[in-house]
Design brief:
This protein has eight helices and six strands; from the N terminus they run βααββαβαβαβααα. By secondary structure, it is α/β, with parallel strands linked by helices. The chain has a six-stranded parallel sheet, with helices on both faces.
Length: 179
């Protein structure tokens, strides 16, 4: 649905789990926007790439107007169906969200990150199926790896199959099984 190739989709860098941390006061409301900006900067280092940011339902388009500085290579979407977006993208980037399991089910190359050291934020590093980074400087290399390295892609798909078989059930309890 109108997604130019190659494309990177990012569940707004807060994903489903940062929002409770923001609302509880554990993290500033600026943190998800800052992380999304770091992802945008990394994507801009990839020639002919495009970033599509899918906002969390509690976020607003106004919160991400700053991404217009990157021009047409970055688009922000609020209401687009996440499954459709994951299916259409080439690479999926997220912090620590159960949406990562959906991307794994589609066999998408994945980059996950935890820049804040948030407890539980490295869960997908431990489970496998992603290239996980803890420093923003690692993002461009991680994106290139999952995009271009066939061996990395093969390893990720194999790991993802195991994670999906173990954790992805549509019963509303995935987070309980992960944590």
């Amino acid at each position: 649905p109108g997604v130019c190739q190659p494309s990177v989709a990012v569940r707004s860098a807060g994903g489903l789990h940062t929002q409770p941390h923001v609302h509880s006061g554990m993290l500033s409301a600026e943190v998800p926007r800052h992380h999304t900006n770091l992802v945008a900067q990394a994507v801009m280092t990839l020639e002919d790439s495009r970033l599509i940011v899918k906002l969390h339902p509690k976020e607003t388009l106004e919160d991400y107007v700053f991404l217009s500085q990157y021009g047409p290579r970055v688009t922000v979407r609020k209401d687009e169906d996440l499954v459709t977006l994951i299916e259409a993208c080439d690479v999926f980037v997220s912090q620590f969200s159960t949406t990562i399991l959906l991307a794994m089910a589609w066999g998408k190359p994945l980059v996950t990150f935890n820049f804040t050291g948030t407890q539980g934020g490295n869960i997908f590093k431990e489970l496998g199926g992603t290239v996980h980074v803890t420093e923003a400087e690692q993002l461009p290399r991680a994106l290139r790896m999952v995009w271009h390295d066939v061996q990395v892609q093969r390893r990720l798909r194999e790991e993802q199959q195991g994670v999906v078989a173990r954790y992805l059930r549509f019963d509303g309890r995935a987070t309980e099984r992960l944590l």
